[in-house]
Design a protein that fits this description.
Blueprint (H helix, E strand, L loop, with lengths): L18 H9 L9 E5 L5 H9 L3 E5 L4 H11 L4 E4 L9 H13 L4 E3 L11 E4 H10 L3 H5 L3 H5 L6 E2 L19 H14 L6 H22 L1
Parallel strand pairs: 1-2, 4-6
Antiparallel strand pairs: 3-5, 4-5
Helix pairs in contact: 3-5, 8-9
Amino acid sequence: MGSSRLPGKILKDFDGKTLLGHILDRLKKLQSAVTTVIATSDLAADDEVQEFCRKNNTICFRGDELNVLKRYCNCAARYQFDQIVRMTGDNPFPDIEELDRLIRFHEEKEMEFSENFSVLPVGVGMEIMSYSALEESLKNASLPKHFEHADEYILDHLAQYRHGTPDVPGCKNKPKVRLTVDTWQDYEKACFIIKQAQSDYVTTEQAIALSAEYERREYHFRKETS
């Protein structure tokens, strides 16, 4: 809830549903067997997140606000997770089809770290890491950035881990397209996409096309008013 650029964004209304609500609803389409946990901070401001979880029958884990790596480790240990899928709470359009594919890839290849965020639009992809890699990260982390995100130590030491990226369809391979929500403009674009798609599940292809349409409209508006 304490986002500096867009405070309260995870429980903000996105065309009739909160951002976290959109994510949870999309996860209902996942074929793989998983346990979903919303891992938020222990700050009073995030009491609202815990209440949201209670109302939506979702597990809520609370931990250190700044040491996100430790929060992830403690959460994984609490629920005895061997593998951890990381999805961030500011992405309303995670591609669940690609998540299923990523999970299969990770398991079949016996990976320690797998990701598809580098080949999908920003905010659409995700990653999976083994608990042992996460635990090792916490043990050896030394830079501030290693504690701010759960994956930074692993990304800095990729050669130490079995890692890989599965192929994604070419129509989705658009890593320069931005579909995350960090700013007010991101929020307005996400609401535009959701409203224009008129679907319970906005596909990645729809989101890419509608993102381009939103940006064209914004460009024409700026040009006309300049």
